[in-house]
Design brief:
five-stranded parallel sheet; binds 6-chloroguanine
């Protein structure tokens, strides 16, 4: 899968995404990440990419021309017959979820557009953007951190990026449950023992215990998610009876 990130600060992107799991996936050729400097496409002789907002108000607005030409250059550079999905990172959008990450991971090419200042001229957004995405209800100084969050979450759902094929599907948020607690050596640390069931070697019991812990943790920490889980996993009469015993 190929990520194309349009930004005024390409070094922010390349610095962060060339390390760890994502960096290794790039080196292995599973994914590619190209950070495109919008400023390289300005037609202004002073390299300007922003201007004052029509109607007045605080701050500057990114101009349509450099953004549009940078986007066009991506299509031409990758010889794409049709425009790929183009995601604009903005707090004025639905909040990004794991389901969206899985869906976007199906694309061969993805363009991510990072805004700065007071935003981007609406007219170019109307021309090129297919998806508006926020990463949460708070305001960042620019879209770069959000683009990196989305890139990381999407990339790890691309086959081959994670070494363990199962680890992408048996984790937090899969099926609307948070993940169960994990333990590693030593068996006793700071006077605290590892839950004995994890040392039992009984995989069925371990799985059942982990599911209970996941449910309890979700109920306590994310009651909103737990409500969805309960709605989608109605308790059967048989299980109810077992519980009541
Ligand atoms: Cl995508 N951009 C900015 N600037 N702020 C945000 C955001 C995005 N998501 C949450 N806050």
């Amino acid at each position: 899968m190929h990520f194309h990130i349009l930004t005024l600060f390409p070094e922010m992107i390349t610095q962060a995404l060339n390390t760890s799991i994502i960096g290794r996936a790039v080196q292995r050729g599973c994914i590619s990440i190209d950070a495109v400097n919008i400023r390289d496409y300005t037609a202004d002789r002073h390299n300007k990419t922003d201007d004052y907002p029509y109607g007045g108000g605080a701050g500057m607005v990114m101009q349509a021309q450099p953004v549009y030409d940078a986007w066009k250059a991506v299509l031409q550079g990758a010889a794409l017959p049709r425009p790929p999905r183009t995601v604009y990172l903005t707090p004025q959008a639905p909040v990004f979820t794991q389901d969206m990450a899985k869906e976007l991971a199906q694309e061969e090419h993805l363009i991510l557009l990072c805004g700065h200042y007071e935003g981007i001229d609406e007219r170019v957004l109307e021309e090129i953007v297919t998806d508006y995405v926020s990463i949460g209800d708070y305001v960042l100084t620019g879209g770069e951190l959000a683009a990196m969050v989305v890139t990381d979450a999407v990339a790890r759902m691309v086959p081959g990026v994670l070494s363990n094929a199962l680890s992408g599907s048996t984790e937090s948020l899969e099926g609307n449950l948070l993940e169960y607690p994990q333990y590693t050596r030593p068996e006793i640390w700071n006077g605290k023992a590892v839950p004995s069931i994890l040392l039992s070697g009984d995989h069925a019991k371990v799985d059942a215990w982990r599911l209970e812990m996941a449910k309890e943790r979700t109920r306590q920490r994310r009651p909103d998610l737990y409500a969805i889980y309960e709605r989608t996993h109605p308790v059967t009469e048989k299980k109810k009876k077992v519980r009541e015993r």
